[in-house]
Design brief:
mainly beta; Neuraminidase
Length: 300
């Protein structure tokens, strides 16, 4: 989901307000299959991040934004202890990290909303780095920063929507460098960009399968989404209940969550098996989006 900055003249920003965005609630959702996602318009003219079990139960609000503030694109750390997200306010866009219960919010990077904005982020599998897309002076790029907020640097110009591979060696991303938006991969250091898709359509946000062998992605104005082997072959369509935006794989690789919408302005988060069967909707109110499945701990 893309939120455009305001275009009217902006007043000078007020002094920072401490702990404005945090609701210090104990996290209630405790099952292994927990989703973080955004909710728009339920509480006010804003967007917050919540967590809930996959059936919509035990919902907990993690952020508490003011009117016209938007928390977007939650991204779990590999151990499930933290969530990175972007926060857009009237004055700034910032990349932030909070604990999984919504406490301990830290700002990693901030830019004026009139110049730039941050959006989708992704963690390295070792939890040390976060790659994220940044729109700077109207041009997209992918940056990386250590999880402690140090060593901010550019990984790739003319790229966005990064997704770090589970083995840590590659990052998938979108780029329009060859015309329309196609999927590419690059090495984790930003080298060796390689084109994966080559279609006249506009691909959207790629998502790695947990075993590193496949990418799931949607195509704009096309119902459903596709799963494609990273080493080639024809993409396999997966049916959904509408057009698809953000996609997230469950840790076991058998199911995917996705943000869906249709011509009737019906906005929802859906869950479907990787073979396209048993498609359901997350039972929550408001306009949900940007789902991210909490990772399960990997065997040591």
């Amino acid at each position: 989901m893309v939120l455009l900055p305001f275009t009217f003249p902006l007043p000078q920003p007020p002094a920072p307000r401490a702990q404005q965005y945090v609701v210090s609630l104990p996290i209630i959702a405790t099952s292994a299959d927990v989703l973080a996602f955004t909710i728009t318009g339920r509480f006010s003219r804003n967007q917050d991040i919540v967590v809930a079990n996959e059936d919509g139960s035990d919902e907990t609000i993690l952020t508490h934004t003011a009117d016209y503030e938007f928390a977007t694109y939650p991204a779990w750390s590999p151990d499930g202890a933290y969530i990175a997200f972007a926060l857009k306010t009237t004055y700034t866009s910032s990349l932030r990290v909070m604990q999984a219960d919504g406490t301990g919010v830290r700002v990693l990077a901030t830019v004026p909303i009139t110049d730039s904005k941050f959006a989708k982020s992704t963690w390295s599998p070792d939890g040390r780095w976060i790659a994220f897309d940044a729109m700077r002076n109207g041009k997209p790029e992918i940056d990386a920063i250590r999880a402690d907020g140090s060593q901010l640097h550019q990984l790739m110009a003319d790229g966005y929507a990064p997704a770090w591979s589970p083995d840590g060696t590659r990052i998938a991303f979108l780029s329009g460098r060859d015309g329309n938006a196609d999927i590419y991969t690059m090495m984790a250091d930003g080298s060796s960009p390689t084109r994966i898709t080559n279609t006249p359509m506009y691909e959207q946000e790629p998502a790695w399968s947990p075993d590193d062998t496949q990418l799931a992605y949607a195509i704009s104005s096309t119902s459903g989404f596709f799963i494609q082997n990273i080493d080639g072959g024809a993409p396999q369509p997966v049916a959904s209940q509408g057009d698809v935006g953000t996609i997230s794989w469950a840790s076991n690789g058998t199911r995917l969550a996705y943000s869906g919408y249709n011509a009737l302005y019906d906005v929802f988060v859906g869950i479907v098996n990787a073979d396209g069967t048993q498609s359901i909707r997350l039972n929550v109110g408001g306009w949900p989006g940007d789902p991210a499945w909490r990772p399960r701990p990997r065997p040591r």
